[in-house]
Write a structure and sequence with these properties.
Layout: E1 12-13, E2 18-27, H1 36-46, E3 52-64, E4 67-82, E5 88-92, E6 96-101, H2 107-125, E7 130-141, H3 149-152, E8 178-185, E9 190-198, E10 215-224, H4 233-254, H5 257-262, E11 265-266
Antiparallel strand pairs: 1-11, 2-6, 2-7, 3-4, 4-5, 5-6, 7-10, 8-9, 9-10
Helix pairs in contact: 1-2, 2-4
Length: 275
């Protein structure tokens, strides 16, 4: 069942605003994942596409409300596998498998890469119950002439600007930033959405450098936190597709026609770039 009522046609964007995309699955902790010998078969399965590997001791990777975080963990270790071109990173901790990119191309590429990595992990490490599955897109929109909230009033839906959209209430040059958050939920999944007009230099994610000019943030994190007894790759595929439909629908609803045009939307292409 979809969280988002709006179903938008999919198209490509010449200037995609994605700052970071990440997909993560959490599972019951496997302490042996700190052992190189135990991880070696998984690394061998990834080595052709992710040849660079590093171990970072004492970290637990978590994709949650605060983003993809690396936090100290008792006796834990994380492995980072980097793609040949350096645009993709696979991270494996004692309780989570994550893939992320700042230059990922289409959703289908992200999904297929993640499912390939997940399949290799399931075969090599035989994890137990699934605890969480999440898909996150962090979009940052910036245009040279969009330097105040007044400009963004014609680029995004007014609901995303809060009281800053009320021209009778406050002058646009008085609005330094306008930021909001919403949580949408149903039985199967939830989506946390963070959005707003932000000042230059505002840090929104520890792995994404803050922009030098004003920008608009649209950060969408769709996840299922139910405990499921086993990890099934085809079930994960279906859920990720559903998550993405919601993320895409919300993203396209958020943009006005002017903003979509500025980003170079091409509705004739049925492969999506941004979200």
């Amino acid at each position: 069942m979809s969280l988002i009522r709006v179903a938008e046609p999919r198209g490509s964007f010449a200037r995609a605003p994605v700052a970071l995309v990440a997909c993560q699955i959490n599972f019951e902790p496997i302490l042996r994942l700190s052992d190189p010998a135990f991880v070696a078969p998984f690394q061998e399965a990834l080595r052709a596409n992710y040849p660079t590997v590093n171990q970072v001791a004492g970290l637990q990777l978590t994709l949650g409300e605060g983003g993809l975080r690396a936090e100290p963990g008792e006796g834990s270790a994380a492995w980072a596998f980097v793609s040949v071109d350096g645009t993709w990173q696979v991270s494996l901790g004692q309780g989570a498998l994550t893939i992320q990119s700042k230059d990922h191309g289409s959703y289908e590429v992200l999904r297929d890469r993640f499912l390939e990595v997940l399949g290799a992990f399931v075969e090599a490490c035989q994890p137990g119950a699934r605890l969480r599955l999440g898909l996150r897109y962090i979009n940052r929109l910036a245009f040279d002439d969009a330097t105040s909230v007044e400009n963004w009033r014609t680029l995004v839906q007014p609901e995303l600007l809060g009281i800053a959209a009320a021209t009778e209430l406050v002058s646009a040059d008085r609005v330094m930033h306008s930021f909001g958050q919403a949580r949408l939920a149903q039985d199967e999944s939830q989506m946390v959405v963070r959005y707003g007009f932000l000042e230059p230099g505002t840090m929104t994610h520890p792995e994404v450098a803050p922009p030098t000019g004003p920008h608009f943030l649209l950060d969408m994190d769709h996840f299922d936190a139910r405990r499921i007894d086993e990890i099934d790759v085809e079930t994960v595929r279906a859920q990720l597709d559903d998550f993405h439909e919601d993320i895409h629908g919300l993203f396209r609803w958020a943009l006005t026609d002017e903003a979509a045009s500025r980003l170079g939307v091409d509705q004739s292409a049925q492969v999506e770039v941004e979200a």
